[in-house]
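Re: beginner question about structure tokens

> Can someone show what the tokenized structure looks like for a real chain? I only ever see the sequence side.

Sure, here's an example I had lying around. Input first:
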Amino acid sequence: MADLDLALGLMSGPNLRRRRRGAWKAARTAPARLAGFRVAAWFDDDACRSIPVETVLHGLADLLDAAGCHIDRSARPGFPLGKVIERFFAPCSAPALAGAQADHPRGTALATGDDRLTSASDRHVRHRQWLSNNESRLQMRLKFEQFFQGLGHPAAAVMPCGVAFRHDHSGADGRPHGHHRRPAARDYWQLNRWMAPAGACCLPGTVIPVGLAASGLPVGVQIVGPYLHDRTTLAFAAARWRSLVGPCPAPPGFD
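And the corresponding structure tokens:
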């Protein structure tokens, strides 16, 4: 994590206009030991459930608790994952990625019926709808700010990343569609769901491997902190994790 902290110091910062105001900084309010952290364990939500991942992460929460962390398994930021998923893709992801894609009439986009429906229709929303979506996103940012204040600093919201999967390149449009091992097949784009809270609310996130699922595939966890507390999430990720979960796990055949 030391190299990431160094890279953050070299690459991040305000633009020239904002730098003159002297208020921008990547904060760090973190102890050197895990025992000083307060952690909200957000491991499950109806919008994206994965029992193999949840099993590993609840075991992780037990380890963190034994290491002295204050673990809150019920704390939530005041909105469900499904809500922030909508606000992440509608005003943020789809318009931002639309520049390289061909325009289509809105009616045609709505009639396609394939997995590109959401992004295709969002590219053609009226500006007033974009403003409404963005206002909702800003309200969720405020709720996250209050959420972290309620936890007390230093704090981290620990969210699942998912189980690694085999790639299936049979998608009709040429994109790889990843699936978890059967019988729990999932569409490739479900991977984006748990990154929505940090992405929509402009929060820093650090991802580390934490163990293996029953299938033998590795599981990661996403550590999310308050706005501009990038160094806090890095410090949490660096504090004694190896002693708790061991070295970075590798699936069979990749040792």
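Each token stands for a local structural state, so reading them left to right follows the chain. The beta strands are 38-41, 70-72, 155-163, 166-168, 177-179, 205-212, 218-224.
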